[in-house]
Amino acid sequence: MAFRAKKERNVISKLEDSWWYYTVEKPDRSFFKGVYNDDMILLPRKNLSKIDLKGRKVADICTMEGLIPTIMCKSGASTVVAADSARPSVLKDPGVDTIEMNLRKIDYIKNLHGVDFYYEEIPEKVPAYAHLLGRNTGQFDLVNLSGLLYHVYSPMHWIGSIRPLIRDGGLAIISTNVTLDPTHIMQFNQKGELQMNLTTYWYISVPLFDYMLRYFRLRPIRCEYMKNNGHEYYMSVICRAEEGVIADPDDGWMENSAFHSWDSIWYGGLDMTGKAEKSDIRFKDGKEIDERSGKTDRVDLLEFTRRNPAHLYTGNHEHTAVLRLDDIE
Question: What is residue 89's predicted lDDT score, i.e. its pLDDT?
């Protein structure tokens, strides 16, 4: 027992010196401190809590230390896959955020919470679906892709890269920084005016975010958003995966482009079209469309922001970026 306790202390000591994205509670009720305020709401986690995961097959893309997969396991999911992108091999100094260190932290958290999930490192420049389906994971009832779209050169390529992973009728939680600009634009982070983070490139306007999701055959049905520091916002949307695009009646361009343009054929996530598995995953409350949306067929994201106030950045006590020992959702 003494040897075991000493070994555990050595593990914790090494982890103490590590950089943490999420805040994680230790057995002595102290914490490994992450980058966020302890009372900041984590919107993908709040959205996840609405979904009945019992017996479901789910995936978390860009998982960091595995907070979301841990919650997925504790919520009853039968199969959980977590994935992160490989860090660029050309970096002479990968810094504090390395796959190797993440694996140590993930193993520690899995043991601490008594959960088990698969972990996959997505190789450089390889689409997420190509790697995961190539590893015979099959498709999923739910895929979470949050906190990534503003960190990549092409947000559309990444939505396309996870789209074949979702079963028809399945759900996707997609979350990103947004602006309330009423036009269909992406604002570039010139001079670091949006964020000084060197890998933050884009803030997508809410109408464009809405359009992108529907272009990739994802119907927005639930939504949460919060005000970031400054004038920008963060939005998390639950979407239902469908076989076809979700175009407005006067939109004769979306379907043709989504299925027949050059980039859609290469990167549009069409690989499982016509042969996708089926899912009947549902919400805990038995409802489909967010009642706060004012619509019965889908959530219009910009109209949602006009009808509903944003969550506050701080002052929250549940569904935060803190993983506590007794958390179950």
Answer: 78
Provide the pLDDT for residue 231.
Answer: 66
Q: What are the average pLDDT values for consecutive 10-residue runs of the chain, which has 329 residues?
A: 54 84 96 96 98 98 97 98 88 79 95 97 94 96 97 96 98 97 97 92 98 98 90 93 98 98 94 96 97 93 97 92 96
Cα separation, 283 vs 141, in Å, equals 12
**Do β-strands 118-122 and 79-85 pair in parallel, antiparallel, or remain unpaired?**
parallel
Structure tokens at 39: 């009372």
Question: pTM value?
Answer: 0.95
Sort 18 into a burial class: Cβ within 10 Å, 0-12 / 13-18 / 19+: middle
For 192, phi then psi, to 5°, come to 70, 25
Q: Give residues with Cβ within 8 angstroms of 207, minimum separation 6.
A: 181, 182, 183, 184, 301, 302
- SS3 per-residue string spanning the chain: CHHHHHHHHHHHHHHHCCCCCCEEECCCCCEECCCCCCCCECHHHHHHCCECCCCCEEEEECCCCCHHHHHHHHCCCCEEEEEEECCCCCCCCCCCCCHHHHHHHHHHHHHHHCCCCEEEEECCCCCHHHHHHHCCCCCEEEEEEECCHHHCCCHHHHHHHHHHHEEEEEEEEEEEEEECCCCCCEEECHHHCCCCCCCCCEEEEHHHHHHHHHHCCEEEEEEEEEECCCCCEEEEEEEEECCCCCCCCCCCCHHHHHHHCHHHHHHCCCCCCCCCCECCCCECCCCCCCHHHCCCCCCCHHHHHHHCCCECCCCCCCCECEECCCCCC
